[in-house]
Amino acid sequence: MILFGIPTCDSCKKAMRALEAAGREVTFRDVRAAPLSEAEIAVIVREFGDRVINKQSTTYRGFSDFLKLSEPEAQIASQPTVMKRPVIRDGEQWHLGWDEEVQAALLG
User: Fold this and answer.
1) To 5 degrees, how large is the angle CA 17–CA 21–CA 22?
2) Domains in the chain: boundaries
3) What is the pTM of this model?
4) What is the 8-class DSSP label of residue 83?
């Protein structure tokens, strides 16, 4: 299982703690320190569409009008922290965020 996020994100921290406490083996991927490749971004956007962009974030609000109108792939490539977090890959399954539905799916 891979959890994509940033180490300062509270949702990422909660998800890591809960998954590890449940005995799940989790690899954390800091998207700032180890940026996503074009192929990885494409897979994530194909999975979630523009829902993967956190339009309430200060990162998004700081975008130029041009970047706000760009495709999600360009937005994530430009500023990975605009991605909603966490993005979790569990085998072939993908999950976005850390809500009750995601917790139920991953924690049983």
Assistant:
1) 120
2) 2-107
3) 0.93
4) B
